[in-house]
């Protein structure tokens, strides 16, 4: 049977700041992110299975991405856990309930690479992550493709 690609779109609002950056993005600011997750696989050929004809149930893909990305980052402030800002970061986490500290600079490029790694690990065995696209703005986005990272 033919391989089929499926894509599901997600959205979340997130604020971040690029610590040490030499431009305006060093300040806290927010984006309305759009995430497109594309998987590839062969549709289920078992006629007795309720998921017959599906590569993966869109609902199952939604649960995975919501848990790993949307629930974690929606309406969060995301900052790099810089050692020289430890006291400030601790105070922010105390003052606000949704401050996410990362071990990387929270750029669109670094975030998409982390999202791809986490999503790929959670997919059913017969399904492979093909690519993801993360729009930071309507006209600016990053893309990750499995074939580029093999």
Tell me roughly what share of residues is in helical segments. 25-40%
Number of helices: 3
Q: Mean pLDDT, nearest integer?
A: 96
Q: What is the molecular shape? A: elongated
Can you tell me about this structure?
The chain is an alpha/beta fold. The protein contains three helices and six strands; from the N terminus they run E-E-H-E-H-E-H-E-E. It has helices spanning 58-73, 86-95, 108-122; strands at residues 4-16, 29-41, 76-80, 99-102, 128-135, 141-145. A six-stranded mixed β-sheet has the order 4-3-1-2-5-6, sandwiched between helices. Helix 1 packs across helix 3. The chain is elongated, with a radius of gyration of 18 Å. The two termini are 24 Å apart.
Features:
about 150 residues; alpha/beta; 3 helices; 6 strands
What's the SSE blueprint?
Blueprint: E1 4-16, E2 29-41, H1 58-73, E3 76-80, H2 86-95, E4 99-102, H3 108-122, E5 128-135, E6 141-145
Parallel strand pairs: 1-3, 3-4
Antiparallel strand pairs: 1-2, 2-5, 5-6
Helix pairs in contact: 1-3
């Amino acid at each position: 049977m033919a391989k089929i690609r499926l894509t599901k779109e997600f959205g979340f609002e997130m604020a971040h700041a690029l610590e040490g950056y030499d431009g305006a993005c060093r300040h806290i600011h927010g984006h309305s992110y759009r995430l497109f997750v594309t998987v590839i696989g062969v549709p289920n050929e078992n006629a007795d299975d309720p998921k017959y004809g599906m590569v993966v149930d869109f609902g199952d893909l939604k649960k995975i991405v919501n848990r790993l990305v949307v629930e974690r980052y929606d309406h969060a402030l995301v900052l790099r856990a810089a050692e020289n800002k430890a006291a400030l970061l601790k105070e922010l986490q105390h003052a606000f309930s949704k401050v996410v500290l990362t071990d990387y600079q929270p750029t669109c490029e670094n975030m998409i690479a982390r999202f791809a790694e986490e999503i790929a690990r959670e997919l059913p065995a017969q399904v492979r992550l093909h690519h993801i696209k993360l729009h930071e703005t309507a006209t600016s986005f990053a893309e990750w493709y499995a074939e580029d990272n093999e």
